[in-house]
């Protein structure tokens, strides 16, 4: 599978291991039989993401993620904006490690491109189940790299 994944930082935050996150995203996409993967993740603060939310979605609220999805079939293409401040706040609110919550949000963006929805309660449940599967793939990948 052809894959291009970029990480852009508009805050002091940066991923500790970009390569591990890229491998993980590719593994998640392969699990869903994607043909190609082209993603750009922009990590920003609440203010910057709020401006995008108002400008592009007319939502005057804070959010943790906005996915600009240009996917066609199994060729995944998207720009995904994530508020690190919201991810931190959600991690605290849901008593989760920051890294787990970040993986959840990153998977969430990819899963939207794969057709997962989150408007109804059953859709939210399916999305959450698949987010968990993706998070588990990250940990499997890391454990297998630790033993090499």
What would you say this structure looks like, in words?
By secondary structure, the protein is α/β, with parallel strands linked by helices. It has a single domain, classed as Collagenase (Catalytic Domain). The chain is built from five helices and four strands. It has helices spanning 18-31, 46-57, 84-93, 98-113, 121-146; strands spanning 2-9, 36-44, 65-69, 75-83. Strands 1-2-4-3 form a four-stranded mixed β-sheet, sandwiched between helices. Strand 1, helix 1 (18-31) and strand 2 form a beta-alpha-beta unit. Helix 3 (84-93) crosses helix 4 (98-113) and helix 4 packs across helix 5. The longest helix has 26 residues, at 121-146. The two termini are 23 Å apart. 26% of the residues are buried. The mean pLDDT is 93.
User: What kind of sheet is the major sheet?
Assistant: 4 strands, mixed
Strand content: 15-25%
Could you report the average pLDDT, rounded to the nearest whole number? 93
Low-confidence region ranges: none
Could you give me the name of the CATH homologous superfamily?
A: Metalloproteases ("zincins"), catalytic domain
Q: What would CATH call the class?
A: Alpha Beta
**Silhouette:** globular
Total DSSP helices: 5
| CATH architectural category | 3-Layer(aba) Sandwich
Counting structural domains, the number is 1
Question: At the third CATH level, what is the topology name?
Answer: Collagenase (Catalytic Domain)
Cα-atom radius of gyration? 15 Å
How do the SSEs run, as a string of H and E?
Answer: EHEHEEHHH
Structural class: alpha/beta
Helical content class: 40-55%
């Amino acid at each position: 599978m052809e894959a291009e994944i970029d990480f852009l930082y508009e805050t002091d935050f940066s991923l500790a291991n970009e390569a591990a996150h890229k491998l993980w995203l590719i593994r998640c996409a392969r699990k869903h039989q994607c043909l190609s993967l082209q993603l750009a993740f922009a990590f920003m603060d609440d203010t910057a993401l709020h401006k995008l939310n108002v400008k592009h979605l007319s939502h005057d609220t804070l959010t943790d993620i906005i996915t600009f999805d240009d996917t066609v079939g199994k060729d995944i293409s998207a720009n995904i904006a994530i508020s690190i401040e919201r991810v931190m706040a959600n991690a605290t609110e849901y008593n989760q490690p920051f890294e787990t919550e970040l993986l959840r949000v990153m998977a969430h963006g990819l899963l939207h491109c794969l057709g997962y929805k989150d408007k109804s309660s059953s859709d939210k449940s399916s999305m959450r189940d698949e987010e968990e599967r993706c998070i588990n793939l990250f940990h499997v990948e890391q454990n297998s790299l630790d033993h090499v």
